[in-house]
Amino acid sequence: MQLQQLGTPLTLLLLILFFGVTFLITLSIGRKQENADHYMTAGNRVGFGISAASMTATWIWASSLYASATSGYTYGVSGPIHYGLWGALMILFIYPFGRRIRSLAPRAHTLAEILHVRHGRSSQLILAGSNILGSLLSLTSNFIAGGALIAMLSPLSFSTGILLIATGVLLYTLWSGIRASILTDFLQVCAMLGAVVVIVPVIFFAAGGPAIFETGAINLSAQQQSFFSSEAFLNQGAPYIAAVLAYAIGNQTIAQRLFAVREDKIKQTFVTATVGYGATVIGVGMLGVLALYLGVEPMDGDVNNLVPQLAATYLNVGILCLFFIMVIGSMASTADSDLSALSSIMMTDVYGRNIARPGQAKPRVMLLIGRLTMILATGTAVYIASNRLNILELLVLVGAIWGALVFPVIASFYWNRVSNTAFSAAVLTALAVFFPVRFGWIALSGPVAILTDLLAVIGVGVIAGLMAFGFFGLRVGIAAAVVVAMAVLPFGMGFLHLYPVLTASLLAYAISTVLCVGISLTTTERFDFARIAEETGRFDKSPAQS
């Protein structure tokens, strides 16, 4: 079928309208009395509706929509569920950790800032460095999604699309940081949810309706037709469970909203975001399943093209404009969050805590650093995005890298024996093992395979234990870790190393946990958690407009 296109004038008009309206909204935020703390945390007073929408919009990347569809196209009917369901549940699982962190550091700006008090400079910079890498790759993946969309739906090139998207996002985010990001997220998530309700059913019925499942079944393998596909779970679901738990801990965009929302609204915010994310991402992921049933081949062999390709095939111009706004909105909501997160890290963790003398950080310099960071990050992400990397692989890779941080970071907020040495050694060693396994530089065979299988089983137990610990406490967490690890042991040995992506992620969890616990048990140091609230706080004493 012929692809429907919007044409260059209409595409530019939609972009100008979207980013123009977004920019006008941010103008409602006053700049006469700028405040560096409000630029990073919005004064810690954001209410439920805005914060829930912002958390949902931030978690729903445009790249998430594309990646969910890719998962559906690759693994069949269970693919979007293994992507969207686990991603949604992880929002819920991190809620208790969020409350603990906020209670310890009610006026903090970043997680790394807390680690500076908890452990010192090296641990802070390790976490800040991983946050920068992750946010930069997140920004890149969203620019790729935007560039692919514009290239598919208009005569404009992929590179031109990236530049247009990057310029639009930078335009309004530069203005007021996290305040602009949160304020615009509310409208963007409303547009996304409304569009999903309309667009997915329209494409489904335009493509043939329920009859597709009979005529197209021949295009699916037995695994792709099963809701309980082991291939989908081991290649997509299991690595993603490990990855998204790490996202919640390692991603500053989530932490920034945690510090921005009113403390008594944290629970409602996380629960609402769980439902909103799951419904939206699984719904769009079904477009990938639909493409599989229809026997659609991704244009140019690029699976990133699947969603816009289906939209361009089955939607008329009016609804195609709605689809275009939906994807641009989801992309912009996460990209502006990444820029805000990057600016906060550079303002707080690099300048505020390591360059300026204690208590002498200058708010105007901080604001300048924050804005320069956004410009530099945008330019870097545009350059990387021009290589058109696979979005799904990029997301799983980032999450897996953060997996090395999850246990040491969480333990640092609960256990007073975790030392700077334990934190740093655990994270760096886990990363040193993760990369060779993830990229196949080490052959997983013979004794190496036995060792990696054993550690991977421990990694499974660690993830289960952390999830249980957050809601039910230490004893239940340890019991869950032991029970799950023992249950997986007979099946995992001789088997898990056959899936190197999953194995690498689990190794990161296992090694960081074993080392962090082992080294911490040898120390006699005891940390006073009350110091965190005392030593994290305001940089800027000037009044600010809310």
TrEMBL record:
Transmembrane segments: 12-30, 42-61, 81-98, 125-150, 156-174, 186-213, 233-250, 270-294, 314-335, 365-385, 391-415, 422-442, 448-469, 476-496, 502-521
Cellular compartments annotated: Membrane
InterPro entries for this protein: Na/Glc_symporter_sf, Na/solute_symporter, Sodium:Solute_Symporter
GO molecular function terms noted in the UniProt entry: spermidine transmembrane transporter activity
Source taxonomy: Bacteria, Pseudomonadati, Pseudomonadota, Alphaproteobacteria, Rhodobacterales
This protein's record includes keyword Acetylation: no
Topology class, membrane: Multi-pass membrane protein
Similarity comment text for this entry: Belongs to the sodium:solute symporter (SSF) (TC 2.A.21) family.
Species assigned in the record: Paracoccus alcaliphilus
Protein name per Swiss-Prot or TrEMBL: Na+/proline symporter
